[in-house]
Backbone:
């Protein structure tokens, strides 16, 4: 019942007025259009040249947007419904995952409610961008791994780990949305081996890590092959149509294309070009930010802004601002400190698993700051569920006498979210009402 209420709240917030604001905002001008082209041509398309377009993200997220356009047409509901469904499913998964991790329905519902009331997750659920799909698949993969860990006890080692293979499918889907999922793939491998080594240590095995690596290598390898298979399947349109960008690159170089190997080599060339684009992306942008700024909400992203011309202090305004619920996000840093302290003190695998999810979503981006790569606050999205789990983990560790403090915290987050809700969904505000919500001044507009 509690899960249904939380998911119902999430659904209402994400579906009501989903067609507002009208038109394509921010990067919807790319992804909504790419989705339509996938329906028309099977690949992303350049209307100006009449050929396949060079794009730098895998196709799965755009295919999901395309499903919505196929169902509801090429309009706001069409290109936004798939992200909305993804956002709702993410709330459902984090609720059940937290229930499993903390053995508490109250804490599970608290985790789901905090995600439902987070501005970052809400905004990404209401626009046709890729980040909400990345968040969903990473979270689903982690939830499957936790389910696999819980079910491994007492099972013969040759039993097929279906939940682990399901995690591999979800991880492959994440990678097929954005390549940044690769850091989670590496983190999840560490978790699998670490959990199995811990189980063998508890059983008195002399060399638990070596034994775990030896006994789990087959399933880890099979999971890796599953990830690759799912990822390649997302490129089916590019393989099948022959019209995608550089689909026959080898032939243009005067080289022979073998039936299967040739297509894979052409795709490898495509990936090298896309990786070069990502590595050299350093064009300044007004709303770019660095990883150290993300948890501080130092530079959110303006998706849409409307104000009559001339815009004065007496004008009415509306906007869509990609901004996490401030009270929630500003509590992440102390929660992470508490997570580390409790993890060391209690030697709790849950703390380290949650921390791994946070690290995989933030730390790998820091080196790119040295090359001045253009980055945005939205890149932190897949780490958000783990940050929320960290908060709930610390809340669950509070003494019983402080349970009311935890309830008060969740209520305060809800009230903060309600206050900022208009700038998440483009509701009309007076200029003074809008300015009152710009708590960090020019950093937020």
Residues:
């Amino acid at each position: 019942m509690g899960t249904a209420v939380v998911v119902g709240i999430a659904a209402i917030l994400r579906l009501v007025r989903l067609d507002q604001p009208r038109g394509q905002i921010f990067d919807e001008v790319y992804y909504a259009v790419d989705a339509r082209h996938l329906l028309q041509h099977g690949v992303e398309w350049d209307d100006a040249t009449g050929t396949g377009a060079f794009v730098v993200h895998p196709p799965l997220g755009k295919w999901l947007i395309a499903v919505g356009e196929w169902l509801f047409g090429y309009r706001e509901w069409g290109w936004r419904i798939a992200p909305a469904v993804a956002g709702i499913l993410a709330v459902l998964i984090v609720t059940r995952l937290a229930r499993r991790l903390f053995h508490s329905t109250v804490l599970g519902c608290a985790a789901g409610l905090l995600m439902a009331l987070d501005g970052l997750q809400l905004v990404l659920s209401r626009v046709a961008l890729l980040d909400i799909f990345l968040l969903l698949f990473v979270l689903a993969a982690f939830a499957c791994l936790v389910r696999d860990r819980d079910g491994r006890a007492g099972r013969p080692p040759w039993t097929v780990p279906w939940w682990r293979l399901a995690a591999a499918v979800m991880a492959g889907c994440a990678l097929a949305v954005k390549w940044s999922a690769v850091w989670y793939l590496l983190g999840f491998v560490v978790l699998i081996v670490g959990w199995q080594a811990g189980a063998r240590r508890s059983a008195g095995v002399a060399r638990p890590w070596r034994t775990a690596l030896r006994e789990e290598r087959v399933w880890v390898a099979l999971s890796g092959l599953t990830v690759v298979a799912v990822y390649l399947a997302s490129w089916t349109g590019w393989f099948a149509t022959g019209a995608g960008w550089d689909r026959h690159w080898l032939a243009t170089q005067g080289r022979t294309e073998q039936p299967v190997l040739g297509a894979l080599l052409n795709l490898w060339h495509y990936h090298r070009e896309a990786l070069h684009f990502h590595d050299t992306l350093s064009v300044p942008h007004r709303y770019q930010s660095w990883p150290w700024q993300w948890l501080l909400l130092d530079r959110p992203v303006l998706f849409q802004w409307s104000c009559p011309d001339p815009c004065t202090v007496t004008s009415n305004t509306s906007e869509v601002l990609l901004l996490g619920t401030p009270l929630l996000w500003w509590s992440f840093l102390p929660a992470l400190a508490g997570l580390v302290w409790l993890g060391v003190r209690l030697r709790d695998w849950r703390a380290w698993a949650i921390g791994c999810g946070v690290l995989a979503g933030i730390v790998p981006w820091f080196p790119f700051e040295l090359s001045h790569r253009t980055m945005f606050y939205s890149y932190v999205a897949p780490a958000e569920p783990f940050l929320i789990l960290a908060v709930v983990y610390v809340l669950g560790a509070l003494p019983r006498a402080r349970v009311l403090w935890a309830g008060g915290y969740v209520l305060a987050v809800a009230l903060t979210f309600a206050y900022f809700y208009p700038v998440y969904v483009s509701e009309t505000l007076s200029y003074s009402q809008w300015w009152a919500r710009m708590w960090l001044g020019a950093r937020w507009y």
Notes: The beta strands are 45-46, 51-52, 301-306, 316-322, 429-430.
